[in-house]
Amino acid sequence: MNSMMKNSNIHCTVKKCKYNMGTENYCSLSEITVGTHESNPTSCECVDCKSFECGDSCK
Questions:
Q1: Residue 38: how many CB atoms within 10 A of its CB?
Q2: Where are the domains positioned within the chain?
Q3: Could you tell me which residues come within 8 angstroms of residue 24 by beta carbon, excluding any fewer than 6 positions away?
Q4: pLDDT tens per residue across span 2-59
Q5: Phi and psi of 57, rounded to 5°?
Q6: Residue 18 — φ and ψ, nearest 5°?
Q7: Which of 3, 4, 13, 34 fits a 20 to 30 Å CA distance from 42?
Q8: Backbone φ, ψ for residue 36 (5° rounding)
């Protein structure tokens, strides 16, 4: 049984993430960490969800 609960404050469309609700575009974590992979981020593409973990669909 899946015990994940939707956090309606965190919208997420990354279906391969372990914490994505799957049928809904929400995260199940109570909070996330957002970071960057760039030394000087200047656009949305430079920002990452550092809470991402690959779910079953990645394996």
A1: 12
A2: 7-35+46-58
A3: 6
A4: 578 999 999 999 999 999 998 899 999 999 999 999 999 999 999 999 999 999 888 6
A5: -70, -10
A6: -55, -30
A7: 13
A8: -140, 155
Given a contact cutoff of 8 angstroms between Cβ atoms, the answer to whether 41 and 47 are in contact is yes
Cα separation, 24 vs 38, in Å, equals 30
pTM above 0.85, yes or no: no
Rounded to the nearest angstrom, the gap between the alpha carbon of residue 29 and the centroid of all alpha carbons in its chain is 9
Q: How far apart are CA 26 and CA 46, in angstroms?
A: 21
What tokens appear for 43 in the block? 């656009």
Q: Where are the beta strands (DSSP E) in the chain?
A: 7-11, 26-27, 34-36, 47-49
